[in-house]
Specification:
The protein is an alpha+beta fold. The chain contains 19 helices and eleven strands.
């Protein structure tokens, strides 16, 4: 039995309860205290997210970040002199900083300044002047906004004069004509490529493109543009996508992630139901650099199993349980997620509580591991492997011992960070197994961010076919980007070439792969 005193400010009163009731009250109080702690930390963290920086930089790095709103004031220096001149092929050009660079292969438009005929008189003797030389006074960068032209395809027919004279049957021969990108339509390869890159690369939705065309007095509805995207994706991009998929499955290292997408008219589902865009990319050291998006109606493990069927190797991913069902795959989980959780735990604390806190110690371990990666990033995989055994492995061992040295409140952000790290520990340290592996899953997360930026502008897909088309187009564009290929030029090449080929034949599809296009560009340079 236990005597419990009420508030001392009130008249003294003693209530007698059983030991069991007392223990229950203690347990309830502890549970409520943890919930209050969790809620207060969550409020602090949400305030940071709403009113603080949206960057994923840790609190130590945020102080170096420039404000978007005073960028001009921060970066401008009116006392800075104009760039110096450098001699280039017998003439002078202004030296440009590393950030200010104009490609050397841009076409040059020349504006010449000559004296008028009535000015060609010598001021000394009155005789006619002649040209003795010229100089480049300045060079300017000129931007020409997109403009449209009508391309007429005119086919000529031929007949034989000799047969006409002899009265025999006169043959009529017609010149061959290249197939259109869309049979019976008025879209050109360049137009479809432009619409796709504007939507999926520049994040400009179709309704804004429609308005832009209207300002140019071109009536092109968003419905027509959407139809062009879907048709060209199904006819010309999907075969390339499938070939890239085969190459990815045959790679030894890959990345995977997933993000949400809303599709309004999915069969048997409500418009509010959540669908997913799965993201895959080959590893940094793979010969074929490929990025693929895969639309699915959910996040079931079977979707990853189906897409990665035949893949055996290292897969970078987050802690989603679905990846753990994959066979013949070694998971390499992302330490960025660990660092992010400790950073969030640190941000939950007041400024005066942060120094030497458990959250700051956990974050320091993570930052030390990432600093090692920064220092060895220029090494080849074999050298990276050796350095990680020498430098990273001892840090991980100390980190693991520290994680097991205390037991934080399970409902706190620190408790969740520690619990997550310990639960995923075996896969988190797998990047030590091979020098080709990454400490984080950032390559796949960058694909997710690219899609998220695009999704902010078009918000949702109307139909599954539209979502599948978006996946195919973004796959081609992102694959072009990581191969340092201009997406517009690559898409234009595909839409010019594919209609002239039998795309059911693998050898024809392979002619349109990024490496073939890139090698062709080098040969034509």
């Amino acid at each position: 039995m236990k005597n419990v005193e009420t508030n001392p400010k009130t008249p003294q009163e003693t209530v007698t309860i059983s030991r069991e009731e007392y223990n229950n009250l203690i347990a309830q109080n502890k549970e409520l205290s943890q919930k209050v702690l969790w809620l207060m930390e969550t409020i602090n963290l949400n305030n940071k997210k709403i009113f603080g920086s949206s960057s994923e930089k840790t609190v130590e790095e945020e102080s170096a970040q420039l404000s978007v709103f005073n960028e001009a004031e921060e970066t401008a220096n009116i006392k800075r002199p104009e760039p110096e001149l450098e001699e280039v092929k017998s003439h002078y050009r202004k030296k440009r900083t590393k950030k200010d660079r104009i490609p050397g292969d841009l076409p040059v438009e020349i504006i010449e300044y000559r004296l008028n005929k009535d000015e060609l008189e010598c001021p000394e003797c009155g005789e006619e002047l002649h040209e003795m030389g010229k100089e480049i006074v300045r060079e300017e960068l000129k931007i020409i906004p997109a403009h449209a032209v009508i391309v007429q395809h005119v086919r000529y027919t031929y007949s034989c004069r000799s047969c006409e004279r002899t009265g025999t049957e006169v043959p009529v021969i017609k010149a061959p004509v290249k197939n259109a990108v869309i049979k019976g339509g008025f879209a050109s390869p360049e137009t479809v490529a432009y619409i796709m890159t504007q939507k999926y690369l520049m994040d400009i939705p179709l309704y804004r493109q429609e308005n832009d065309f209207k300002r140019k007095d071109i009536q092109l509805s968003r419905q027509t543009m959407a139809n062009w995207i879907i048709k060209c994706s199904e006819m010309w991009l999907n075969p390339i996508y499938d070939e890239l998929h085969k190459k990815m499955v045959n790679s030894e290292t890959a990345h995977a992630d997933e993000t949400t997408i809303q599709v309004l008219k999915e069969p048997g589902r409500k418009a509010q139901n959540k669908s997913y865009m799965w993201l895959y990319r080959t590893g940094q050291y793979e010969k074929d650099q490929i990025a693929l998006y895969n639309y699915r109606m959910g996040r079931k493990p079977e979707y990853a199993q189906e897409f990665l069927s035949g893949f055996s190797g290292y897969l970078h991913c987050d802690g989603y349980q679905g990846y753990k069902t994959l066979k013949n795959v070694i998971l390499v989980q992302c330490l960025s997620h660990v660092r992010r959780k400790f950073d969030e735990a640190l941000k939950c604390l007041k400024e005066e509580e942060r120094k030497d806190s458990k959250a700051s110690i956990g974050l320091a371990y993570c930052n030390k591991l990432f600093k090692i990666e920064e220092n060895i990033k220029a090494l080849i995989p074999e050298e990276k492997y050796i350095k990680r055994q020498e430098l990273s492995k001892p840090v991980l061992e100390d980190f693991f011992a520290w994680l097991n040295s205390f037991t934080p409140a399970s409902q706190s952000h620190l408790g969740k960070a520690v619990s997550y790290t310990l639960n995923q520990w075996n896969n988190l340290q797998n990047y030590l197994l091979d020098g080709r592996l990454n400490i984080s899953n950032n390559p796949a997360e960058h694909l997710a961010k690219s899609f998220a930026l695009c999704r902010k502008n078009f918000l949702f897909s109307n139909t599954p076919s539209g979502a599948e088309a978006s996946a195919a187009v973004m796959s081609i564009i992102e694959t072009a980007k990581i191969n340092k290929i201009d997406p517009f030029k690559y898409l234009t090449y595909i839409f010019q070439t594919a209609p002239q080929l039998d795309m059911t034949k693998t050898e024809n599809v392979q002619k349109l792969l990024p490496e073939v296009f890139k090698n062709g560009q080098k040969e034509n340079a």
